[in-house]
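Repro:
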Amino acid sequence: MAKIRAAITGVGGFVPDYILNNEELSRMVDTSNDWIMQRVGIKERRILKDKDKATSDLAVLAIEDLLKKTKTNPEDIDLLLCPTITPDFVFPSTSNLIGQKAGLKNAFNFDISAACSGFIYGLEIASRMIESGAYKKAILVGAEKMSSMVDYTDRATSPLFGDGAAAVLIEPVIEEYGIMDRILGFNGNGQQYLHMKAGGSLNPPSYDTIDRHEHFIYQEGKTVYRFAVSIMSEITDEIMKRNNITPEELAYFVPHQANLRIIEAVSKRLCVGMDKIMINIERYGNTTSATIPLCLWDYEKKLRKGDNVILTAFGAGFTWGSIYLKWAYDAK
């Protein structure tokens, strides 16, 4: 019996219309376009300005784009996973709300919290569930309203993050395409360098936590940069070696879009040219779990069936992962 593999068979995405560029941001906090470009390579980021809209609304629009492009009936979707760190509520799950709003009536669903590695973690889970034979059509949607947890008086973090969502359709194939290999890991000691100080059960919301600005992103940038470059390079190199993929045989490397300098440093260590790396951080900023699928959405028409593609991410926790796949279709 032929082995079942899980393959991405379609990509959809959505970003809000409102563009917060560096010029406008420099009027909100002590920064400048040159300062931001030199340190992180971000020119602008999309922001969901509608106060009545949340992460689930971004996800639904990405899913609607995906369903339309792939001509898929929403009732045929039997699995929905949503990696996010900006859920609409603590409970119910954001995936539950997405399923209702998008008409995915038959989709078993749950959220995944793995920060910037969320899409990689979700792709691992979805692919294993597809490979089991129990599910036939899965949607994995990385969605974030990062503006909801950004302190726009903080020079260090306010330029980094944006809002957006992107979704992939995952289906079983019996050809040699789809997910071929994966490496995932974590180091919980990294939590001290990148986290939100308050809002959880350890430090519940209070007047004091609000006064101390503890409901925003906290990051020690230099430490996170060092770990991100080291680990993303290491796991990508390992997955290339054990699958006998040379830089010349790699069609695209898709790194998490956190910082252009991180991407350039990883590129140099892997000897993979920047022309083979998907990059859109300059337009969207860091959308956390949505960065990798947004890259696939932007570059979809350039991908060809059989292309060797490696996705790699590093996130808070620390969490990390790398997935090697053979692209399963030519975009129309």
